[in-house]
């Protein structure tokens, strides 16, 4: 619907409140409910929103190293704009109208002097660049997550220990296990569809109470919008079944981690031809696809925090844990960083397997697209051969950073990262990751207490 259609809808249905949200640097949706008149008044010029959301972490603790905002600036309001193209209604909240927003300077969705820290604005710019290169980017992100028979209160009371999973045992791809919680299982599929997040599939993964969902592919910005909304929507639907969902990359050392794989392809502007497919070339991979993969592999060590943004991310990126550790690619091999799927033209694509379920979809997808376009723009040759067999053992072309500190230093000092995302964004993002690392190293873990308390 266009703006006038939305105004008419609001007025004809006597809607008195509207909900909106935007993603912060951690992928946390921040927002509020506003009244009808406030909504109407802000359509032209946007709404003021306290810019502390760019000056604190996921736990609302202010950074001590921020430049975007801080005590030095007094945390003023910054202009946030609703993207009317994201209009949908929340089916589990009586159909309240909902919009996604970003800190953009142009209300028409065109890149302008946007807030450099804003993840959605960053992806909009990269998607615009993709379009000017003559490509339509088709993307989707899939997620794995664990479900618990807990509440926010019980998590705190238990100190996040001895948690009860939704179901016991390892039941990957089970038809049996979802039948135990069929109301929740079907609510996920149906309510997400009503919320304009249609799923290709939903199933159990291996692990107690873990599900995996593949979101239907779409134009890259719409795909990221659906991915960011998916994570919060799943949590909200879970709440209504007295459950808690987590998208941590690795919540338990003895269980598999949770991925957030990104599926990607480039098409002609008319969306009639998959530009990654060429039956005359090896593996039906077009030269464009080879350049795209070459760019992603070349840039990956420079931008790993975009895919693995937390301390916990790197607990998943270990050998033999169904997550990659090497700078590798393959044809239909789940042990490499990039996996080519090429059985038919319509579904030929590259699956980026580094990204975890804890990633910020806007940043992970922006990084995937920007690095692929880098390979096309620089006409890189895919001189890394496809891995055959165990990709974990194929280390001759590089390995991924071992932790967030190492990954952040590499990105902060990388001219490639600045070329992809702009120096101002890289400065802000890497400062937030450095802050995250420093919060971690200052803590004393249960492991340290158990190992050293009595014996050392």
TrEMBL record:
Example GO biological process: biogenic amine catabolic process
GO molecular function terms listed in the Swiss-Prot or TrEMBL record: ATP binding; glutamine synthetase activity
Chain ranges of the GS beta-grasp domain: 13-109
Transmembrane region(s): none
Pfam families hit by this protein: Gln-synt_C (PF00120)
Domain of life of the organism encoding this protein: Bacteria
PROSITE patterns: GS_BETA_GRASP, GS_CATALYTIC
Family assignment from sequence similarity: Belongs to the glutamine synthetase family.
Protein name: Glutamine synthetase
Source taxonomy: Bacteria, Pseudomonadati, Bacteroidota, Cytophagia, Cytophagales
């Amino acid at each position: 619907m266009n703006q006038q259609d939305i105004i008419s809808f609001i007025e004809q249905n006597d809607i008195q409140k509207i909900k909106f949200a935007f993603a912060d640097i951690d992928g946390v949706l921040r927002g509020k409910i506003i009244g009808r008149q406030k909504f109407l008044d802000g359509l032209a010029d946007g709404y003021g929103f306290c810019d502390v959301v760019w000056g604190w972490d996921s736990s609302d603790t202010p950074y001590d190293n921020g430049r975007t905002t801080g005590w030095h600036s007094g945390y003023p309001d910054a202009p946030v704009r609703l993207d009317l193209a994201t209009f949908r209604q929340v089916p589990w909240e009586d159909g309240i109208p909902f919009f996604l927003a970003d800190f953009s300077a142009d209300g028409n969705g065109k890149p302008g002097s946007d807030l450099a820290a804003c993840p959605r604005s960053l992806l909009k710019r990269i998607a615009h660049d993709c379009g000017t290169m003559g490509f339509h980017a088709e993307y989707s992100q899939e997620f794995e997550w664990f479900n618990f028979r807990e509440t926010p209160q019980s998590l705190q009371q238990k100190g996040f220990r001895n948690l009860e999973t939704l179901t016991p045992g390892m039941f990957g791809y089970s038809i049996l296990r979802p039948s135990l919680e069929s109301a929740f299982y079907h609510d996920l599929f149906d309510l997400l569809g009503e919320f304009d997040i249609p799923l290709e599939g939903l199933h159990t993964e291996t692990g107690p109470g873990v599900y995996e969902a593949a979101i239907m592919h779409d134009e890259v910005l719409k795909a990221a919008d659906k991915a960011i909304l998916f994570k919060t929507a799943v949590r909200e639907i879970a709440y209504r079944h007295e459950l808690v969902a987590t998208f941590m990359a690795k919540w338990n050392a003895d269980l598999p981690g949770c991925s957030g794989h990104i599926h990607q392809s480039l098409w002609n502007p008319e969306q009639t031809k998959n530009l990654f497919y060429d039956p005359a070339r090896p593996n039906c991979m077009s030269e464009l696809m080879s350049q795209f993969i070459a760019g992603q592999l070349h840039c990956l060590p420079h931008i790993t925090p975009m895919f693995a943004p937390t301390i916990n991310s790197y607990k998943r990126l270990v050998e033999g844990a169904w997550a990659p550790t090497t700078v590798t690619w393959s044809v239909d091999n789940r042990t490499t960083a990039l996996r080519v799927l090429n059985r038919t033209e319509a579904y030929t694509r590259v699956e980026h397997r580094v990204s975890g379920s804890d990633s910020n979809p806007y940043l992970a997808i922006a990084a995937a697209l920007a690095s692929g376009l880098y390979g096309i723009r620089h006409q890189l040759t895919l001189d890394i051969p496809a891995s055959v067999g165990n990709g974990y053992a194929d280390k001759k072309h590089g390995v991924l950073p071992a932790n967030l500190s190492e990954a952040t230093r590499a990105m902060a000092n990388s001219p490639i990262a600045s070329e992809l995302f702009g120096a101002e964004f890289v400065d802000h993002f890497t400062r937030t990751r450095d802050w995250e690392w420093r919060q971690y190293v200052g803590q004393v873990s249960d492991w340290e207490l158990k190992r050293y308390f009595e014996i050392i």
